[in-house]
Amino acid sequence: MDLNTVKEVRDARLREPWQPGDAWLGGGTYLFSEPQPHLRRLVDLSRVGWEPLTLGEDGSLEIAATCTIAQLSCFGRKFGAAAAPLIEQCCRAFLASFKIWNMATVGGNLCNGLPAGPVISLTAALDGTCLLQSQAGVRRTVKVADFITGAGRKDLGEGELLRSVTVPARALGCRTAFRQASLYGLGRSGALVIGTLDPVDGSMAVTMSAATVRPFRFWFPLPPDKGELRRAIEAAVGDDDWFDDIHGLPEWRRHMGFRLAEEVRHELTRLSQDGAR
Fold first, then answer.
1. pLDDT at residue 33, as a whole number
2. Is residue 3 part of a domain?
3. Cβ atoms of residues 45 and 76 within 8 Å
4. For the purposes of burial, counting CB atoms within 10 Å of the CB of 24, is it exposed (0-12), middle (13-18) or buried (19 or more)?
5. Does residue 56 surpass a pLDDT of 80?
6. Does residue 66 register a pLDDT over 80?
7. Neighbours of 23 (CB within 10 A)
8. 100: burial class by Cβ within 10 Å (0-12, 13-18, 19+)?
9. The sheet that has 22-25: what strands, in order across it?
10. Locate the FAD-binding PCMH-type domain: which residues (predicted)?
């Protein structure tokens, strides 16, 4: 779609002062999908030269905001970490054409803040941390689970840039379980639940997204029983936190959220018991 209110596209490397009506341009798959009458200038990130994926000396994984879904998927299929299969599972939950895969970015998926954003689900479940940079160059970090504050809302100031997301080595070493539900065979996620089991201390985390307006991550020092998990979800997720749109009513999303969470808990608990033998 043509954005007929945009007067110019500027190179992000020039570091010009931020103006009203500016927007960061990554892959552009969302920006060019619908009218953006408030925009006057796009600040293009395509030539900043950030390495898409970087493994740190401590075993952590830094994913640049400009990393495409195709690059993330390719890396996930070759990555040897225990949690690597989760990367491809979440990329497949994107349910987009190859053209979108090769243009859509990790940063764009996070900054759109949509409940069904699969990169949000992936990085929140793996305890990811966002690196943000203001126009003044000040950097700060915030957990992905806290970065998304509601449907389409995020903890991002005017002109602030999402530079990257870092996943800790500890999370990459976890066993994982993945469940997704949609009203249609190839539809947008109506509920997506990811579980992680830490082989070091036996702790378990269950992260719920898509069904809720923002990701909810529940951490337990030991695998919970069915009742404990349900009580934790009920205490944290209020009636207004279940998402409502054409892809699923809140009542259905709530039902599927609890059901998938229990399936994930059961799978990982069984793995924990098998590993203890």
1. 85
2. no
3. no
4. buried
5. yes
6. yes
7. 17
8. middle
9. 8-11, 41-44, 22-25
10. 1-172
DSSP-assigned letters across all residues of 44-85: E-TTS---SEEE-TTS-EEEETT-BHHHHHHHHHH--STTHH
pLDDT of residue 274: 66
Residue 154 confidence (pLDDT): 96
Residue 221: its pLDDT value, please?
A: 97
Contact 205, 277 (CB under 8 A): no
User: In this structure, are 162 and 212 located in the same domain?
Assistant: no
Report the CATH number that the domain containing residue 156 is assigned in CATH.
3.30.465.10
The terminus-to-terminus CA distance of the chain in angstroms comes to: 58
Contact (Cβ atoms closer than 8 angstroms) between residue 52 and residue 74:
no
pLDDT higher than threshold 80 for residue 258: yes
Do residues 242 and 252 make contact, with C-beta atoms less than 8 angstroms apart?
Answer: no
Reference 141, options 163, 170, 119; nearest CA is 163
Task: Tell me what pLDDT residue 210 has.
Answer: 97
* Entry pTM: 0.94
Q: Tell me, yes or no, whether 2 lies in a domain.
A: no
Our count of domains for the chain comes to 3
Q: Which contiguous run of DSSP H or E holds residue 150?
A: strand 148-150
Q: Are residues 193 and 154 part of one domain?
A: no
- Specify whether the CB–CB gap between 214 and 207 falls below 8 A: no
Structure tokens at 127: 């305890």
Domain extent, residue 98, equals 53-170
What is the token pair recorded at 72?
Answer: 């993330």
Token reading at 246: 């054409």
Q: What is the pLDDT of residues 12-54, one digit of tens each?
A: 998 889 999 999 999 988 888 888 899 999 999 999 999 999 9
